[in-house]
Amino acid sequence: MLCRCFCSKSASVNNCDIPMTPIIKAQNSGTKEDDPRIPLTQKQKYLLTKNWKGIDREVCAAGVEMFLKMLSTHPEYYKMFPFYNIATSSEEKKRMDDCLKAHGESVMKFLGQAISNIGNSDKFFELINENGRFHAHKKYFKPEMFWAMEEPFLYSVKLILGERYTDNMQSIYKTVIVIILSELEKGCQAELKSRKMIND
């Protein structure tokens, strides 16, 4: 989710190169097997990383569906994205927008990076916290905005996975997205507080 979101309207719609956190391979060393911050069993973590491969294969489509769902609930957010000009376009045209596709893909890839490191809780939380802090530097962004992605994320994952989105996987995804969004919010709040202390 390390992205150039919430940029000004003057941003070029065609200039959608979005910086991302470098891909970090999953690691399992140097971490507790049962970190209380991640209330999932080792089997559930394994199922999650295995199941996510289905999203990886359609990461762009998943990202587009997630953002379209979120923006259907919060259309006022369109003005904060580089693809703001598609707000009144048809659903078909929105899905074809290159900037929306690039942005959605980058966000889903970030979530995939976090999930791939869920076996290493220190790296998992480090990635997410860093991303949350990054968003604190976005002019229009507020920490609580992260939560607008919870239901759209689950909707998108269910849509892409189809029958692979079982009741068990639904429970796992609900758990992990709450952890991720909570940590993103904390990271963003911490960075804002730090900036305020420096400026005071």
UniProtKB/TrEMBL annotation:
Task: Quote the InterPro entries the UniProt record gives.
Answer: Globin (IPR000971), Globin-like_OT (IPR050532), Globin-like_sf (IPR009050), Globin/Proto (IPR012292)
The alphabetical list of record keywords is: Heme, Iron, Metal-binding, Oxygen transport, Transport
A single Gene Ontology MF term assigned here is: oxygen binding
The Globin domain, residue ranges: 39-189
Heme is among the record's keywords: yes
**What start and end residues bound the annotated signal peptide?**
none
Q: Which family does it belong to?
A: Belongs to the globin family.
Q: What is this protein called?
A: GLOBIN domain-containing protein
Lineage of the species this protein comes from: Eukaryota, Metazoa, Ecdysozoa, Nematoda, Chromadorea
